[in-house]
Design brief:
Helix content: over 70%
GO cellular component, one term: membrane
Number of strands: 0
Largest sheet: none
Oligomer: single chain
Shape: globular
Order of helices and strands: HHHHHHH
InterPro entries: AgrB
Pfam families: AgrB
Mean pLDDT: 92
Keywords: Cell membrane, Hydrolase, Membrane, Protease, Transmembrane, Transmembrane helix
Structural class: mainly alpha
Radius of gyration: 18 Å
Protein name: Putative membrane protein
């Protein structure tokens, strides 16, 4: 394969990722508007995206599955943040537990690669750990400021984003994503058998 063909393949893949990201965000925004949870959904997304960017983690095997599962997860967590009323003391415990779990996850698994992309360069791995640690620190500061200001709904949205993104970095997260992929595969096989 010459470099021009390789460039076309890279551009094509990049365009596909961009379209999937835009499709996800349009679906998420429309559903969050319908549920009245746009702000908490985007609060969840802010932490979730930052942690996933620097921490890595498990991925579904296709873009379509990712759009569907991401949309459901983002909208559900944004909406739950609006509906669940957590007392201040419980929220502080939840945030503290999340920060401690985040520190452990950073030491143990960050950056978490995929089957296709493992980060093996020690310098790059160290920088990803630093970036993730800074993200965790920013999350911690903002969340405790929100709690102090009485904005428990937004603090919960940020915390749910942190918890889910940290989970996807762990071996348990990889197992959950594999189970989701297997479920989709089973549903597709069942549909094909029913149509034959």
């Amino acid at each position: 394969m010459n470099s021009e063909e390789n460039d076309i393949e890279i551009y094509s893949y990049s365009l596909e990722i961009l379209i999937l990201l835009l499709a996800t965000m349009v679906c998420v925004t429309l559903l969050a508007l319908l549920l009245g949870s746009v702000r908490t959904t985007y609060a969840f997304l802010a932490v979730f995206a930052a942690f996933r960017c620097f921490g890595g983690g498990a991925h579904l095997i296709s873009g379509k599955r990712c759009v569907f599962v991401s949309t459901v997860m983002l909208v559900a967590c944004g909406y739950l943040s609006c509906c669940i009323l957590i007392p201040k003391q419980i929220l502080i415990l939840l945030v503290t537990g999340t920060v401690l779990a985040g520190q452990y996850t950073i030491m143990k698994w960050v950056p978490a690669g995929t089957a296709k992309h493992q980060i093996t360069d020690n310098k790059l791995r160290f920088m990803q750990k630093i970036n993730m640690s800074v993200s965790l620190l920013i999350y911690t500061i903002i969340t405790f400021l929100l709690i102090t200001a009485g904005s428990f709904t937004y603090a919960l949205a940020l915390t749910l984003g942190a918890i889910l993104s940290l989970l996807l970095i762990t071996p348990l997260g990889y197992n959950i994503v594999a189970a989701i992929d297997n479920t989709f595969d089973s549903l597709i096989k069942k549909e094909v058998r029913n149509n034959v």
